[in-house]
Amino acid sequence: MSDILWKAALHPPADGPVECRVYELWGCDTKIPRVACFHQDLEELVRLPEPRHYQVLNRSGLLMIAAAMQGSAELQPYLLDDPYSVGIYCATQKGPKGEESARKMAWVTDDRFASAYKAARTSKTFFKEITNIPPSQLGIAMGIMGPQKVFSHSRWACLHALEQAEMDLQNGIVQAALVCSGFSLEEYLLALRIRRDLAPECLLSEGAAALVLTRGNTMTDWQEELPDSTDVFFGTANDLVHIARRGKDKACTASPAPVQTSGLSSSRSCHG
Prior knowledge:
By secondary structure, this protein is α/β, with parallel strands linked by helices.
């Protein structure tokens, strides 16, 4: 079984408010009930070495990086010995599709389409959709040069990341594996689909988690390690968050002083 050298989970406080999320879409408000989210601005969730990196990272990616970078000290001996011996195994989904730019393009005539599209949808918007941008930035920030593998299954991405990390450790491809995931309510359609699959009483929460794994004597059956149904579901990152919370909970539930989120993904929060 592989050894969990270090683990951390990042999620809102358990005693925090249960909210409904209001998304301003196409001139009407759409609500998703029973959610929990961070109220920090992006820069408060994690301090990145390059400020411009915030412009190309979506909220889920920033949450994932915030959790994973806490394991820098545990990975440092492996990175000093051989930065190619550490791999990143990331479970995530595409970032927001850019509803704001879609609204601007809705009634544009054919002759103005090219110029309007260029003005409304920048390359930075596109970068926020790409799944491998967050782990790439994480690798740059931590000095990890080993394999980087990204999994995007809507439900089993964490399991796929854990199993691939396990295989690479057992085959000697890496000496340490950083397995990480993040989920946010930034993308309306993703949050809506997950909310509809949950029981009405279940809470849908933002969250992120990271594990540092090293090779053990036997293969770990990660399917057996997955959590049973719980009262809180963390979207794409659910399995990894619950694994990281087991035993001594190193969760960072109280980041910097709460600041009301303002307009992330054209959304706001309402209590009740």
